[in-house]
Amino acid sequence: MNAPAKFETTLKDWETDQEVRWCPGCGDYAILKAVQRTLPQLGADPAKTVFISGIGCSSRFPYYMESYGFHTIHGRAPAVATGVKLANPELDIWLVTGDGDGLSIGGNHLMHVLRRNVNMQIMLFNNEIYGLTKGQASPTSREGTRSPSSPLGSVDHPAKPAAFALGAGARFVGRGFDVSKHLPDVLKAAHAHQGAAFIEIFQNCIVYNKDVFDDFAAPKGAEDRQLWLEDGKPMLFAGDKKGIALDRDALELKVVDVADGNWEAAGVLVHDVTKRQVAHMLVDMPFGPFPMALGVLYDDPRPTFESAVIAEREQASAGKEANLAKLLAKGQTWTVSGTAQDPV
Q1: What pLDDT does residue 239 have?
Q2: Which residues contact 153 (CB under 8 A, 6 or more apart)?
Q3: What average pLDDT does range 206-221 have in this prediction?
Q4: What Cα–Cα distance (Å) separates residue 181 from each residue in 195, 241, 258, 282?
Q5: pLDDT class for 4, splitting at 50, 70, 90?
Q6: pLDDT tens digit string along 12-59?
Q7: Residue 106: how many CB atoms within 10 A of its CB?
Q8: What Cα–Cα distance (Å) separates residue 209 from each residue in 127, 129, 141, 178, 338?
Q9: What is the pLDDT of residues 285-317, one digit of tens each?
Q10: pLDDT class for 336, splitting at 50, 70, 90?
Q11: d(CA 132, CA 142)
Q12: Which three-class secondary structure string do you get for the chain?
């Protein structure tokens, strides 16, 4: 666990005196409240909690959390967060980034923090647009997206953050959306994971990409298009009338109808968070013919990067004396006398 010692706080203890400056109606407000509500339930200690961000609308997050924080530079938050964790492994690190900050200029750094498995929670806010710089197409913008940088419609094939995380070697991948009541559950599962926990959060940009996720994330009427995954439970959606099964001939997932609640007869899969191959298939399900897979897609811990670094340090220093003067005097030494005016 990131925080084995429970610390009693309330939501108010995590709120700062800073004016929250996002556009009215921005999904970031809902995410902020979800995090502030979740941390007291985790028993998190503000004195041992650090929020680290890069550049973008989401990256204002540290200003609004009553804890330690860094607002770093574009795309480099994972590098700074790695340094903080190595300097003090007891700190609970939350990395906040966006689809532009994390997958464009910061894609290289994000890849390495995932493959190294540095113990932290990584929240990537995905609004499929560059919001802070006035609505240009981002790495996750859909094909055909019209924006100042793609006035005729984007021709780029969009990146899939969760697929990127799995491909980079992440051992935890979760998904949620800004106004979902289930988002705190995903955050709790990420915090319980020992290692780099990646959470993609679909976030509504009210100004430049309004309601782009309404087909599955609208406050009402979109529940039938959401597949909320729970370890050990069947993959059911649409009021348990439909489910996800495996087409063994094609080696791909398919949607099946469930009659009279008999999901076993329909061949519905039971979710196992340790199955990496199934997580890949869930991420790749095309929305429309399939529901949007949400919740914890993958969770299979392995030893963390900082634990390996600490063990290496201990091995290197074992049986050695910490004496800087002795180290400097080791080997050949010279004593220099005279002045600068003496001939060479």
Answers
A1: 94
A2: 143, 144, 145, 146
A3: 92
A4: 25, 22, 26, 21
A5: low
A6: 999 999 999 999 999 999 999 999 999 999 999 999 999 999 999 999
A7: 25
A8: 7, 7, 10, 14, 73
A9: 999 999 999 999 999 999 999 999 999 988 988
A10: confident
A11: 18
A12: CCCCCCCCCCHHHHECCCCCCCCCCCCHHHHHHHHHHHHHHHCCCHHHEEEEECCCHHHHHHHHECCEEEECCCCCHHHHHHHHHHHCCCCEEEEEEEHHHHHHHCHHHHHHHHHHCCCEEEEEEECCCECCCCCECCCCCCCCCCECCECCCCCCCCCCHHHHHHHCCCCEEEEEECCCCCHHHHHHHHHHCCCEEEEEEECCECCCECCCCHHHHCCCCCHHHEEEECCCCECEECCCCEEEEEECCCCEEEEEECCCCCCCCCCECECCCCCHHHHHHHHHCCECCECEEEEEEEECCCCCHHHHHHHHHHHHHCCCCCCHHHHHCCCCCCCCCCCCCCCC
Cβ density class 222-246: b for 16+ within 10 Å, e for less: beebbbbbeeeebbbbbeeebbbbb
